[in-house]
């Protein structure tokens, strides 16, 4: 088992911005079309995070032309270039599956307002 953990440790990316459930994120995902490769941006609400280590995944939900679309991204995949937080959300649940049943303004998550930490006075 130590061999597997050693291989997985090499593949873990540490350069991701810290995001959590309820945040609105932009996921920059590489798409291969024939011989060309391009980056597609997928913006939506993080409704779940699963597993740990290299197998870590997160589910992003967005509304596209009135239809809810969910996509599961492996966090440490080489195809995920970066994850950028657009807006922090204030939630009290680990999984936001109830958002699937909500429509319009009720499907929104309230914004979390973070305070800036002041430097100690000398």
TL;DR?
Keywords: Ribonucleoprotein, Ribosomal protein. By secondary structure, the chain is mainly β.
Name the overall outline. Answer: globular
> How many helix segments?
1
- Judging by the overall fold, what is the CATH architecture? Roll
Number of domains: 1
For this structure, what is the CATH class?
Mainly Beta
Radius of gyration: 17 Å
Topology, number of strands: 5
What kind of sheet is the major sheet? 5 strands, antiparallel
CATH topology: SH3 type barrels
Poorly predicted segments: none
Protein name: Large ribosomal subunit protein bL19
Organism: Parasphaerochaeta coccoides (strain ATCC BAA-1237 / DSM 17374 / SPN1) (Sphaerochaeta coccoides)
GO biological process, one term: translation
Family: Belongs to the bacterial ribosomal protein bL19 family.
